[in-house]
Amino acid sequence: MTHLNEFKEFLNNPRRIVIVTHHKPDADALGSSLGLWAYLKKKGHSASVITPSDYPSFLHWMPGNEEVLIHEEKTRDKINSLINESEMIFCLDFSALNRINSLGELIRQSKAKKVLIDHHLEPEHFADFEQWDVKSASTAGLVYELIVALGDRSVINAAIADCLYAGLMTDTGGFRHNNTRREEFMIAADLTEHGANPTRVAKLIYDTNSLERLRLTGYVLNNKLTVLPEYNTAYITLSQEELKKFGSQTGDTEGFVNYGLSIEGIRLSVMIYERKDEIKLSFRSLGDFSVNDMARKHFNGGGHKNAAGGSSKDSLQETITKFLNLLPDYRNQLNPEA
Ligand code: 5GP
Ligand code: MN
Predict the structure, then answer these.
(1) Degrees (nearest 5) of the Cα angle 177, 181, 185?
(2) Ligand 1 within 6 A of 306 CB?
(3) Is 3's pLDDT higher than 70?
(4) Number of the ligand 1 atom closest to the C-alpha atom of 94
(5) Domain boundaries, the chain
(6) 309 CB less than 6 Å from ligand 1?
(7) Which ligand is nearest to the Cα of residue 93, counting in written order?
(8) β-strand 88-92 against 69-70: which pairing, if any?
(9) What are the beta bridge partners of residue 47?
(10) Which ligand is nearest to the CA of 279?
(11) Contacts of 285 (CB under 8 A, 6+ apart)
């Protein structure tokens, strides 16, 4: 099923469909999934969205949120049978099955047709049909393009449009990052035409803070942001203890890594923080420095050239030390003038 017409033909009959996205989904992961979900339901399919973990409360406004199945103890059996009985599985906003933990193996073994819709570097190519484009700023934009390619532009309603717009807006950093092409504005314009409300979506995602999160932001900027001028690098670290002290919820650290990159001259910004069962790293860079390479090579991760993530099973302190010890190897790339 490598061609669009085979894919389209398959969807001519009502199908049992599962949509899966990555661990700790962000607005692009969840928005593209729920946008696609609402579209498939409108087309008469039965569809479910499964996430490998919970996600930030600033995404709970998305239409269809209450129907999302979060993979945990009490949903395990239901999710297993949905995957086993599905005829088609869409994998959105991630490019390798190992990124979704145990769900990945279930999906690999399932007989369902697999569809990958993604924009990350170096995909695994496990799918029967791929809508994969690294040039696309967002998976939501790829879902939009797929719907249009299927001849269903007119099926897009306000719910679908808001979900997709949310992914497009956040993965371009509010249409500011260097992945923002003419196409992103064209898609945004068409989604707006179909009922997306840019002001409302921006308010819900960017301008809705808990007091705890604002206090945590203040603490991080004041006490936890370290600058290493010799490497044009800034980094932030946060332990579970610190996160607990501020009553942090999932998603409260989102965007912190960007503060480092806003300092003049900084080319690499990293946020290293402790989750319950692992250490998570978030990388951002400017220009040619590839954080995808750094995350892939040293932290079991990946992503895009200028935005990537990874994880570690070492302690927080060991992970910080590992990161700092790597910097001399990258000195020339990070500080070309030195
Ligand atoms: P963030 O830092 O916002 O969590 O992620 C930045 C980018 O890197 C996103 O596109 C995200 O999907 C990707 N990413 C984050 N964590 C991981 C990871 O552990 N593995 C891989 N392969 N990609 C990641
Ligand atoms: Mn994305």
Answers:
(1) 100
(2) no
(3) yes
(4) 12
(5) 4-206, 211-334
(6) yes
(7) 2
(8) unpaired
(9) 17
(10) 1
(11) 261, 267, 268, 269, 291, 305, 306, 307
Indicate the CATH number of 4-206 among 3.90.1640.10, 3.30.70.2860, 3.90.1150.10, 3.90.850.10.
Answer: 3.90.1640.10
Has residue 26 got a pLDDT over 80? yes
Mutate to test the pocket of ligand 1, among 177, 304, 319 (most ligand atoms within 8 A of CB): 304
Q: Which residues contact 61 (CB under 8 A, 6 or more apart)?
A: 204
C-alpha dist (Å) from residue 125 to 118, 154, 163, 331, 334:
11, 31, 26, 34, 32
> Does residue 260 have its Cβ closer than 6 Å to ligand 1?
no
Is the pLDDT confidence value at 285 over 70?
Answer: yes
Please tell me the pTM assigned to this model: 0.96
Residue 328: pLDDT band by 50, 70, 90 thresholds?
very high
User: How far does residue 11's CA lie from ligand 1's centre (Å)?
Assistant: 31
Q: Per residue in 230-282, pLDDT tens?
A: 999 999 999 999 999 999 999 999 999 999 999 999 999 999 999 999 999 99
Write the burial class of residue 338 (CB in 10 Å: 0-12 exposed, 13-18 middle, 19+ buried).
Answer: exposed
Instruction: Name the architecture of domain 211-334.
Output: Roll (3.10)
Q: CA 30, CA 121: separation in Å to the nearest integer?
A: 19
State the SS3 of 75-114.
Answer: HHHHHHHHHHHCCEEEEECCCCHHHHCHHHHHHHHCCCEE
Q: Is 93 left (phi over 0), alpha (psi -120 to 50) or beta?
A: left
Q: Which ligand is located closest to the Cα atom of residue 119?
A: 2
Give the position, in ligand 1's atom list, of the atom nearest the Cα of 299.
Answer: 19
Q: Tell how far the Cα of 223 is from the centroid of ligand 2, in angstroms.
A: 30
How confident is the model over 5-13, as a mean pLDDT? 96
302 C-beta closer than 6 A to ligand 1: yes
> Cβ(123) to ligand 1 under 6 A?
no
Task: Write out pLDDT tens, residues 39-93.
Answer: 999 999 999 999 999 999 999 999 999 999 999 999 999 999 999 999 999 999 9
